Amino acid sequence: MHTEYSSSDCADVIVVGAGIVGLTNALQFAKRGLKVTLIDRISIRKDSFKVGESFLVFTSAFLRTVGELDRFISEESFIKLGVWFTVGAERKSDFSGTTEWAVNADPHPPHYLFDLAPDQKWFRCMFLDMQIARPDAEAAMREAVRAHENIRFLDDVRAREIELSEDDGPHRVHLDSPDHPEPLRASWIMDCSGRNRVLARRLDHRAEHRELDDGFQTTAAWGQFSHVDDAKFGEQWTALLRSGQRTPRDLYTVHLWGVGYWIWVIRLSQNRISVGVTFDQRMAPPERTPREQFWSLIHRHPLLDGLIGEETLLEFQSFRNVQHWTDRFVSGRRYAMAGDAGSIIDAYYSQGIALALVSSWHIANIVERHVKTRRIDQAYIDRVNEATRQDWHMLRNMVREKYTPAIEDPRFFLLSHILDMAIFWCMGSTRAKLTRWLVQTEGYADRQTPELAQLRAGVEQRLFYSRSPYWLGLAPARIESIQRHLQSKIAERARWRLAHGITLPPITSVLSVTAPLPQIWKLPFARKGRPVDLSGRDLVQPASQRPPGTASWFDALPISVNTKLDWVIRLRPLGLLGSFLFGYLYDAADTGWRKLTMRLRPVRRGAGVLAHGAAAKSGSGPDA
Question: For position 394, what pLDDT does the model report?
Answer without folding.
Answer: 97
